[in-house]
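F.,

This is the one I mentioned.
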């Protein structure tokens, strides 16, 4: 697989994934980093086709790139001052949801992000993560309860809800 093929076939889903967390420029940088790592892993023998499709491997790399970028705080915040009040409220709601999702524990966070950013259904997530569909549904149900509590109380008592 050559670089152009990788960019055209594997690049769009990670771009959509990163656009949920970063501005467009930063999302493109994240995709480039993900695809560069993918090529490196393929050439270095770290990717093993027998363990799953290359697109799943690429998503795993994208997930780690996103976490690294969030930890390093190398992303650009949206400038709410330049938005009108309706846009500003929508951005605020979106950021609140993203903050709430980022507080979920794995694998709930990963599953919710696959649903939101990749538009994946239960069966697709089940295949990708190699877990039963009912387990995916259980994680989504628990995540919804936690997100509802967090967003209702804006984070107050969030940790108390989990048991």
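My design for it:
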């Amino acid at each position: 697989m050559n670089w152009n093929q990788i960019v055209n076939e594997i690049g769009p889903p990670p771009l959509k994934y990163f656009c949920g967390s970063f501005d467009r420029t930063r999302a493109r940088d994240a995709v480039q980093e993900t695809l560069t790592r993918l090529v490196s892993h393929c050439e270095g023998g770290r990717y093993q086709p027998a363990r799953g499709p290359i697109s799943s491997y690429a998503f795993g790399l994208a997930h780690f790139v996103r976490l690294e970028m969030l930890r390093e705080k190398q992303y650009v915040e949206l400038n709410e001052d330049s938005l009108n009040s309706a846009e500003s409220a929508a951005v605020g709601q979106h950021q609140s949801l993203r903050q709430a999702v980022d507080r979920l524990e794995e694998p709930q966070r990963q599953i919710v992000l696959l649903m939101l950013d990749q538009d994946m259904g239960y069966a697709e997530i089940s295949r990708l993560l190699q877990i039963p569909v009912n387990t995916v549904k259980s994680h989504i149900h628990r995540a919804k309860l936690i997100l509802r509590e967090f967003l209702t109380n804006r984070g107050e008592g969030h940790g108390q809800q989990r048991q």
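The chain has a mean pLDDT of 78.

Talk soon.
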